[in-house]
Amino acid sequence: MAELVGQGVMPPKLITYLSSLLQRVADSNDLTAAEAAVKKKCEAEEEEEEEAQKVSVFHGLTRPGISVRSYLERIFRYANCSPSCFVVAYVYLDRFSHRHPALPINSFNVHRLLITSVMVAAKFMDDMYYNNAYYAKVGGISTTEMNFLEVDFLFGLGFHLNVTPITFQTYCEHLQREMLLLHPSPSDHAQPSSAVLCTGRSAKEHHKYICFNDDETSHQQQHQLAV
């Protein structure tokens, strides 16, 4: 197996902002799941959805000991993919979550979803990229598991991998808003961000969504990150 080849540069700011967003998303869904467990009012359909989460290939038995930020920085350091791949990976995670609301991003699956989405993005975006065995080593999983994750993720996306320049710019702007949440300026307090954390409700569940306000364009409104 090839040895890991790391970059000798500091991770770009987008790694910090993306990891912050995903960590907040995972924490929010962990809290939602904990509250649901305390209430113990799960009906048959909810139990089926919870069971689907448990058997998902992305769902680990325990929470990884590495933080989302450290894990994403590790991927950046060793994957040697272009920075744009991380934005595209964010788009893929959004699409995947939107197509599978019964699989909210949480602390049990966020790491596997991250390594898989970045690998798929690198294969689609970059001319040169590492193979699955290398990404498995970066992600701390077996090559066999990496292969299964890739296939499941691709089918989960419906093989919808193309990202238009408009969509790419939309998600870049959303990460810029995450920067304002982490480092607000005095003028920002007077103007609420157009990216808000809201609650998506179905008949049986309450999940968090990072979504765009009504003042966004119609194209932007169709993108939301389920959490």
From TrEMBL:
- Report the CDD domains cross-referenced here: CYCLIN_AtCycU-like
- UniProt entry keywords in alphabetical sequence: Cell cycle, Cell division, Cyclin
User: In terms of domain of life, where is this protein from?
Assistant: Eukaryota
> Is Cell cycle a UniProt keyword of this protein?
yes
Respond yes or no to whether keyword Cell division is given for this record: yes
Q: Which GO terms describe its molecular function?
A: protein kinase binding
Instruction: State the InterPro entries in the record.
Output: Cyclin-like_sf, Cyclin_P/U, Cyclin_PHO80-like
GO BP annotation list:
cell division
SUPFAM superfamilies per record: Cyclin-like (SSF47954)
- A Pfam cross-reference name: Cyclin
Where in the sequence is the signal peptide annotated? Answer: none
State the family it belongs to.
Belongs to the cyclin family. Cyclin U/P subfamily.
Q: What is this protein called?
A: Cyclin
Species in which this protein is naturally found: Cuscuta epithymum
